[in-house]
Design brief:
Blueprint: E1 2-7, H1 15-25, E2 33-35, H2 49-55, H3 63-75, E3 78-87, E4 90-98, E5 104-108, H4 116-119, E6 129-132, E7 135-139, H5 148-156, E8 161-165, H6 173-184, E9 187-191, E10 196-199, E11 202-205, E12 211-213, E13 219-222, E14 229-234, H7 238-241, E15 244-246, E16 249-250
Parallel strand pairs: 1-2, 2-3, 7-8, 8-9
Antiparallel strand pairs: 1-14, 3-4, 4-5, 6-7, 9-12, 10-11, 12-13, 15-16
Helix pairs in contact: 5-6
The structure holds acetamide (ACM).
Acetamide (ACM) binds next to loops.
């Protein structure tokens, strides 16, 4: 299976331009699964809930979902992408996975980071795993990485690949994702963004270095810190199915669950 990410620099508030730039950047890509960053269509640093509400879209009714469905169908690949979602008065930092048949899976970020708590409502959907071309795929968004429960829960649900749309600002996430992969024996695809955004006196720089990591904790592809780029890797899912660390140690079966209570 061939998987990839697009490390991207969205222009804040210009969804139309961001969608068409993504389409151009992907024109030479041949892959089964592609991951785009968190909030790839809007940018990140909202002035408040009012501005977020203006930029957020309904899923599946909005322009970005239509774009992603059409992209997936045209390019015959599954696409995972982060979008600001509005639903019944709530605003979620969401991600959708679409496949070429038009099926869609929605995830809403469970762990909001810093200022996001002012803008977004926390996710209210259970973690789930979906199948595509023989792969079991889970999704988490950016800061979810620091809660190992998320990657572990997805692993226990059967995930072999975790897609990780991100707008990372803490520089140590990429390194930590090697451990998330290793401790769960799964592939992880972190699609980060680059660039700096300013709003009033606030300024945020995103850390790039998108990457694909193997179940052995090896970086298969990594992007530079500050350049838009595509990363692609051919992966063997068998590596994620074998949970034996040694002949005598199994990552899942060896857990001593009765002792893990506080
Ligand atoms: C983040 O969760 N966007 C840092």
């Amino acid at each position: 299976m061939r998987v990839g990410f697009l490390q991207f620099h969205p222009t804040f508030g210009n969804t139309g331009q961001n969608l068409s730039r993504v389409e151009t950047k992907l024109s030479s890509l041949d892959a089964d699964l592609l991951v785009l960053p968190e909030l790839f269509n809007t940018g990140y640093l909202f002035s408040g809930r009012k501005q977020l509400r203006q930029l957020a879209e309904e899923i599946p009714g909005g322009e970005t979902t239509r774009f992603l469905k059409s992209l997936s169908k045209k390019r015959k690949m599954a696409v995972v992408a982060g979008i600001a979602e509005k639903d019944k008065g709530k605003l979620y930092n969401s991600s959708i996975l679409v496949n070429p048949r038009g099926d869609m899976h929605l995830y809403r970020k469970l762990h909001l980071f810093n200022r996001e708590k002012r803008w977004f409502d926390a996710g209210n959907l259970k973690l789930e795993v979906v199948s595509f071309r023989g792969a079991k795929i889970g999704v988490m968004i950016c800061f979810d990485w620091i809660f190992p429960e998320v990657a572990r829960s997805l692993t226990l649900l059967g995930a072999e690949i975790i897609c990780h749309p991100a707008n990372l600002v803490l520089h140590y996430c990429q390194q930590s994702m090697l451990t998330r992969s290793l401790e769960n024996r799964i592939f992880t695809i972190t699609a980060n963004r680059i660039g700096t955004e300013e709003q009033n006196s606030e300024r945020i720089t995103f850390t790039g270095k998108s990457q694909i990591v193997s179940p052995r904790g090896e970086i298969l592809v990594s992007s530079p810190r500050n350049k838009e780029s595509l990363g692609v890797a051919d992966i063997n899912l068998k590596e994620a199915r074998d949970k034996s660390v040694t002949p005598a140690n199994h990552l899942i079966k060896d857990r001593r669950r009765t002792f893990y209570r506080l």
